[in-house]
Design goal:
Layout (H helix, E strand, L loop, with lengths): L4 H4 L1 H25 L10 H4 L1 E10 L7 H17 L6 E5 L3 E7 L4 H8 L4 E10 L8 H22 L1 H7 L4 H20 L15 H9 L22 E5 L5 E4 L4 E2 L3 E10 L5 E11 L1 H15 L8 E5 L2 E4 L11 E4 L5 H15 L2 E11 L2 H29 L3 H25 L6 H30 L4 H33 L3 H31 L3 H4 L17 E4 L2 E3 L20 E2 L5 E2 L6 H13 L18
Parallel strand pairs: 5-11
Antiparallel strand pairs: 1-3, 1-13, 2-3, 4-6, 4-7, 4-10, 5-6, 8-9, 9-12, 10-11, 14-15, 16-17
Helix pairs in contact: 2-13, 2-16, 4-11, 6-8, 12-13, 12-14, 13-14, 13-16, 14-15, 14-16, 15-16
Length: about 625
């Protein structure tokens, strides 16, 4: 029978797991020396405390601030905070008007500025569009740009010819007399090559420095997706901006319309000129008087331009939320934005436009440090509950499985070590913070992890009851138990994923740790528990079924099995043809005609009468001879 690589090399599998654990903790140790890593996970707001900021919206005009406005402001602040790498932040509304932002730990001043400062809506023409990644010096574009930027410098030596004359060692007085004449045109060339832009869509806004910045800008970097005043850029100059989703980057002209010129923005199904309602979701946008005049001039100019210069970008908080192309001149200031919208995305864009139209700023009402006294107490009790649960699982495993229970305890220790290392690593790399709900997920994972071991061990014991040797039982049990473990963990992981994406707040922390420990459970079972059992099956203590091993076939009620030629061996014993066969008697099963052992107490009538005669005569029971189909009569 072919054997699997894991069965042939269990030591290699265990060494691989050990190397992975060492690399994980070695990386953490290196991070503590040369970075800001820590061997302990970062704690969330409910366990460590942090900074709480209460923001109050302020408007210079008589503008109604409703719940939708506050909700949009919360979404923008949450996007800023999440993109800056701060996890487990709590951002809520207070009294339907104020915004409460609670940041765990000691946030940086840059993060606090992202919270305090308000967002702005600006409309800019699109000059160029590219993929989100930073483009390095590609040969063809770089060559084209190199000739454009280096021509002035390259033309000077070409017109002066002294470079070749100097190389020849000829007289240098002639290039000296030509230098002033050659330098004067070179000094005048930059002024001739930098004309004033005719309008905001003119490509003259794109200088060499701006083109280089556009190429080097990376919209896959989270730092460029935080939004905020630092990304808005000057209003009277061209800027580089990212798409809010990080799928593209834009080169934009100066600001032409501000968000305060928006009169209204709504979403709904498209209505044709005949009054028919279609199934297409659109966003309807209208401007005030000044905005209408400006928007009419802009659409007139953009309509005559080629793509992508016929697009008009809507920039909120320094990020492009939409960049529709102009298909017609809009003289009345009532625009319809269509595209691949559904109900949710159309409503989101309408809310963003409405928020950008409000002349809102946020005033910091209070900023204070909050403690985690209650959370610390709950954490201590939670850890105590987890320790008690772990101890009970260990005691139950030792009582139920005896020596095999040590494998359960060892597997739980390895699972805890890997989970702790991953959480500490995520705290360093991704800014993850462990909340009280996350601790609850870790405690629940103890039962999930122990369940996988129980499924595997019970399958091994079932195989031993069927008369297999321990080596064969481990191999057969793994083939069957593996499917059950994978199915069980897949359901747990799917539930954690659904809970993570549908829930908010601390429940997401619970779902995250639950999903993480489910993956760790699979790693430990495949890379530790099963290879360890393959090694233990070869030892004398477990392989020969010691009473304290938990794998004693007699204690498990194992059945003897027929091995051919009228031979029956005890449960758990190898079918060695040189070993004496176990006699078929009243106290042991006898072979049947189909090759399966017949359990004790279910002998044929002839076998039972023969056993009674032997017992009356006090004669020992002879070993069975012949095939399994004999009737058991004495000769």
């Amino acid at each position: 029978m072919a054997t699997t690589p894991t069965r042939r090399r269990p030591v290699r599998t265990l060494v691989t797991l050990g190397v992975l654990i060492l690399l994980m903790f070695g990386g953490l140790l290196a991070g503590t020396q040369w970075s800001n890593a820590s061997l302990t996970p970062k704690l969330a707001l409910d366990l460590e405390g942090g900074t709480q900021i209460i923001l109050t919206p302020v408007s210079d005009e008589d503008v109604e601030i409703d719940e939708e406005t506050i909700a949009q402001a919360i979404d923008i602040i949450r996007q800023r905070v999440d993109a800056s790498g701060v996890a487990e932040a709590e951002i809520t509304s207070q009294g339907g008007r104020n915004i409460v932002v609670a940041l765990p730990g000691t946030p940086s001043e840059e993060t606090l500025d992202l919270v305090r400062q308000s967002a702005r809506m600006l409309f800019r023409p699109v000059l160029a569009v590219s993929g989100p990644e930073a483009t390095t010096a590609v040969e063809d574009p770089a060559a084209d740009e190199g000739t454009a930027t280096e021509d002035p410098a390259a033309e000077d030596p070409a017109t002066e010819d002294p470079a070749t004359e100097d190389a020849d060692g000829s007289a240098t007085e002639e290039p000296a007399t030509e230098d002033p004449a050659a330098e004067e045109p070179a000094a005048e060339e930059p002024a001739a090559e930098a004309p004033e832009p005719a309008d905001p869509s003119d490509l003259a806004w794109v200088t060499d420095e701006l083109a280089a910045e556009f190429e080097a800008y990376d919209c896959t970097d989270e730092a460029n997706l935080t939004g905020g005043p630092d990304l808005v850029g000057p209003e009277d100059a061209a800027v580089v901006a990212c798409d809010a989703s990080g799928f593209a980057k834009y080169l934009l002209g100066p600001v032409e319309v501000e968000g305060t010129s928006i009169d209204d923005a709504t979403s709904g199904l498209r209505v044709t000129q005949t009054g028919a309602v279609t199934n297409e979701w659109v966003v309807n946008l209208s401007f005030d008087g000044e905005g209408t005049r400006t928007f009419r001039d802009v659409t007139t100019r953009l309509l005559s331009l080629e793509p992508p210069r016929n697009q008009f970008a809507m920039v909120l908080d320094g990020l492009v939320i939409s960049a529709p192309s102009v298909n017609t001149v809009i003289p009345d200031g009532n625009a319809e934005i269509s595209g691949d919208f559904d109900r949710e995305s159309a409503g989101t864009l309408a809310r963003q436009l409405s928020f950008g139209s409000l002349p809102l700023t946020f005033e910091v009402q209070s900023e204070q440090q909050i403690s985690a006294t209650l959370g610390s107490e709950q954490l201590e009790r939670g850890l105590l509950a987890g320790a008690i649960g772990l101890a009970l699982v260990a005691l139950y495993s030792l009582a139920q499985y005896r020596g095999l229970g040590l494998v359960t305890i060892g597997s739980l220790v390895v699972a805890g070590l890997v989970s702790y290392g991953l959480i500490a690593l995520l705290s360093w790399v991704q800014g993850y913070r462990l909340s009280l709900a996350g601790v609850a997920g870790l405690i629940v994972a103890i039962g999930i992890t122990a369940d996988s071991f129980i499924v595997y061990f019970e399958r091994i014991r079932d195989e031993l009851r069927d008369g297999r040797t321990l080596v064969a039982a481990v191999d057969a049990a793994w083939t069957r138990a593996r499917r059950t473990i994978l199915a069980s963990d897949a359901i747990s992981f799917l539930a954690a994923v659904v809970l993570y994406f549908l829930a908010v707040g601390g429940v997401r922390g619970f779902a995250f740790t639950l999903g993480l420990t489910t993956v760790v459970d699979l790693v430990v079972v495949f890379l530790f528990t099963h290879p360890l059992m393959l090694l233990l099956a070869r030892t004398r203590f477990f392989g020969q079924g010691h009473r304290l091993s938990g794998l004693d076939p007699e204690q498990l009620g194992g059945r003897s099995r027929y091995v051919g030629r009228g031979r029956v061996v005890a449960a758990g014993q190898p079918a060695d043809r040189g070993a004496p066969a176990r006699p078929a008697s009243a106290s042991a099963p006898s072979p049947s005609t189909d090759g399966e052992p017949v359990a004790a107490g279910r002998m044929t009538i002839a076998e039972r009468r023969a056993a009674e005669r032997r017992a009356a005569a006090g004669a020992p029971a002879p070993a069975p001879e012949g095939d399994a189909g004999t009737d058991g009569k004495d000769l």
